[in-house]
Amino acid sequence: MKRNTIARFVRSFCLAGVLIGGYVFGGITPASAQQIGDDKLGRCFVAMPDSLMPLLSTSEREELCAPRGIYSNDNRIEFVTTRLGQLRYERSNHTITLQSSSASVITIRHLQLPDSTFILCMVTTALLPVEDSQIAFFSDKWEPLPTDRFIQMPQMDDFVLPCTDKESYTYQATYKHLRPFYMRIDISGAPAILTARQTVIETLAVEEKPLAAQFLLKESLAYMWKDGRFVFSPSITSQG
User: Fold this and answer.
1) Is 26 helix (H, G, I), strand (E, B) or coil?
2) What does pTM read for this prediction?
3) What do you get for the CA distance between the two ends of the chain, in Å?
4) Which InterPro entries does this one have (predicted)?
5) Host domain of residue 190
6) CA–CA separation, 106 vs 69, rounded Å?
7) Least packed by Cβ within 10 Å: which of 90, 103, 115, 240?
């Protein structure tokens, strides 16, 4: 019952994450698209289809991407208080992040391919009742692209410690409680590094958590953007 409730909440909050923008910026005066200039990520954000951010209008996205006086879009953080709570808008040269205080995080990352063209990676993360992320890739015109072209997504078994005895009673008894599997995905750095951390342990009963902790990896798995793909990087994972 608990896990079914969690699954329903996670799906709801992932949807809420896509919709949070539409309630935030009422009354903002639209900025001229010319203010965005050569800002590639900003132009893509403004052109984002309503199906991906249905309640955030083009003019509102233009306002977010417009420079504030003498300040550029690089390393800019703003906090906006709304009826949904506080929204944190963070902008760097390659990334836009929208985070509500309690519901979800949306990260949009610009990634360069070997032929010097760009694609977009969007990570939507539900924060409650357990952190869980969904990832999607798009062309710079927001055409959907196959995820497996850019990353081999980690599965639950990738978070199991290599020394684990998978025939043991403890493993077998605990394994069946690890479905559905949840993980938190983040993207940072230049070149981009994607990290994936299992959060499924948070869905377990109190007495089950110590058993699962014996064989589940505590560190995040790390993937570096290289030659147009996120490539698993054991050295970064071990450092994490």
Assistant:
1) coil
2) 0.80
3) 34
4) DUF3256
5) 151-240
6) 26
7) 115
